[in-house]
Amino acid sequence: MQPIRWLIGLISLILCAAFLDDTPIYLNIYSRETDQDLVFGNAYEELHVDKRTGEWTSWTDKPVPGNLLTPDQAFPALDFSIDGVHLIAKHGATFLRKTIAIDKDRQGCVLSVTVGVLPQGTGYAYELTSSYRLFPQQKRLERWARLIRNRPGLKEHFDGFRFQLPGAMIGPKSENTVTIPGPFFTTTFVAPDTPYDSLKAKKINFHSAPDAGFGLFMLANKNRKTVLGSWMVTGGEVAYTTAIQGNGQTITCRHDDKRAYYLLPQMAVESDTHCVELAESPTEIMGAYRRMVARTMPRDVATPDWVKSQVILEVYPTYYKGGLKELTARLPVYKKTGFTMIYLMPHWEGGYSPVDLFKVDSRFGSPADLKVLVKTAHSLGLKVIFDMVIHGFSKKSPLIQQRPELFVRNEGGELALHPTWKSVTTDWANPAYQQYMVDVVLHDQREYGNDGYRVDAATFKGAGWNPAVPYPAYRDGSAAPELMRAMLSALRQKNPDAVLLSEVFGPVFYSVCNFAHDNQTEAVPLLLEKMQGGTYTAAEYKRHIEAVYELLPKGANRVFYARNHDTSWFYHFGGYTPRFMAFEAVHAFFGIPEVFAGDPKNRPSPDDEPGVYEAYRKLFALRKQFPELVSGDVELERVNCNNPHVFSGLRSLKGQSVMALISFSDQAQTTTVTLDSSVKVRPGAKLTMLDTQSGQPVALTSVGVNGFTVTLNPFQGVVGRITR
Question: How far apart are CA 704 and CA 678, in angstroms?
Fold first, then answer.
């Protein structure tokens, strides 16, 4: 019966479209023209394009009254940048022509609108085509752009395309909230479901994506059960930046697609695809994003199974007065604490501004000392990964003179500097540089036998504008994934279990690495301050971690930390307080935990405060006691907690689930948790969990169906198995 009903509905839609003077193109997709507009829609959504300017002026979700966009001349829906100037925002555009066709895959229909920018003689200096694709049975819109330069003259800097949703809003402003999932710094923090009005006068530039973040913007109206999601599809070849900008009344969502080229006369360049989707819940939007990631940036399937069981200790050679020898002597203590992997910060000359990647810094010891360190670790069952800097070299490095072809040069022929770190920047797309890094990692394998690398600062560096290379300007600063793939492939030829850990966690790196960190150096100290001030809760942190897992490919190995070496360098650290350790409990139970061993110039360190390593030991011991906390699926959404000060979650493996409850409050907290109906618990069953520090049993009282109540002491955590 279902196909017949679908056919009847389709016929009705076509008849309805014909009655309304809409021209059906393919299934329920139609178009029409008025004196002012081009109209393009399907049964669920409709967009209007101004026939004078080619500007996208209206987008409606048919069950939701009102326009989802608020046209704003300062924020055109599509723009492009030449030599740092966005030309449509500055000069406007003129409609030239349009085409409508079924797409080549017969999945939907495409409306293409071409405009002219900057009148020149009988034509225009530039022609910009916007293409909009609709699908018959979906509330999804894809759009992309193509630019042709008509005017003669010298080459120009084409900086990229700008896609905007001007004045995005769903119904009344007061009902709208904004969520930007992913990492954050102090300047980019937006809590889940932040009220729209609180952002309407702000401008925030978020992490670039898909290298450092997700680049996903979500706008929600819960009263109308409508969520708008916006992101770009680059396949990880190039980065884009997401921003929100308010004008005092509305918020514009912006994605800057960083496909930079030298633009020549009669040359055409194309953008990546901008996806906009409407759904009933954030989960549906994040599911669509995740499917895009799985399709365009598939996870590395050769990742060793042991990666998920790691407990990482980050060690700074400077911290140990006796250098590598003292660190080697401490390894049994670290092993006893429960660490399984040593991540060694730079041991070579120059550190994070490398002078020579092949030479051990004599302040820390000798190559022989490093060999003993790795050998001793392996004898204890510990793995060792080295830090690796790929963004550039110190100006003092002899490599700059010895191998000048490895570095980016600007248009004047001068060595280019990294936009953030001011190192002499390396050309990631250059095969010679990729081979150089392969030689480095193979040298380390031969000499030291390390188990892989933590790769530092692999984020998009921006266009190099080197006129001597045969590839587009964006390539030398965006090809880190290709470089890392070459390094990992070479390592695996010598050691099939070798791994890469990415400092930055954008989804592209899961295709070339085996695990990735937060790169949120300021996040936990910032959240600690907000919790102390009553403006952030454990429930919101759960939403953050839940979103991370919703957006990453299934099986992605996620490394969490509350402090690393950058925390004190770029923000500040307040010590191993009970609330700080509550964060660490969450990290130990719902990811791969990483701990920082210490920095002599930025105290305290775990050694300075009695009981810190013992507290870590107890958390890590629970990971061994409950295999679900290592290998189980993270299922935060399957346990509901009515107390915002308590973090709750499940991990499930082979029909068994383990639940953890962690209080972030300095007061006793009573909470009721309700498990998802698929978690089978016998009515009236008694549930006993273990205190994460004392190991003493804690009884939960059964309440209703799959519900339990418990009172937790200040900062108490409990964990226990639930039979399904």
Answer: 15
Look-up: residue for tokens 């670290």?
334
Contacts (Cβ under 8 Å, ≥6 apart) of 611: none
* Helix extents (H) in 243-365: 282-296, 323-337
Query: Left if phi > 0, otherwise alpha if psi is -120 to 50, otherwise beta: which for 232?
Result: beta
pLDDT at 681: 72
pLDDT of residue 679: 79
Are 2-296 and 305-516 in the same CATH fold? Answer: no
Better pLDDT: 78 or 5 = 78
CATH number for the domain running over 305-516: 3.20.20.80
438, 441, 447, 449 alpha-carbon torsion, rounded to 10°: -130
CATH, range 633-723: 2.60.40.1180
Closest residue by Cα to residue 268 from 131, 384, 353, 146: 146
* CATH T-level fold of 2-296: Beta-galactosidase; Chain A, domain 5 (2.70.98)
What is the β-pairing status of strands 273-279 and 226-233?
antiparallel
CA angle at 146 for the pair 96 and 98, rounded to the nearest 5°:
30
Domain boundaries, the chain: 2-296, 305-516, 633-723
Q: What is the mean pLDDT of the chain?
A: 94
Asked if 41 and 26 count as a contact pair (C-beta separation under 8 A), the reply is no
The predicted pLDDT at position 348 comes to: 96
pLDDT in tens, 400-458: 999 999 999 999 889 999 999 999 999 999 999 999 999 999 999 999 999 999 999 99
pLDDT tens by residue, 224-251: 999 999 999 999 999 999 999 999 999 9
pLDDT at 23: 84
Using alpha carbons, list the distances in angstroms from residue 512 to 141, 383, 465. 30, 20, 26
The candidate with the shortest Cα–Cα distance to 513, out of 469, 455, 567, is 455
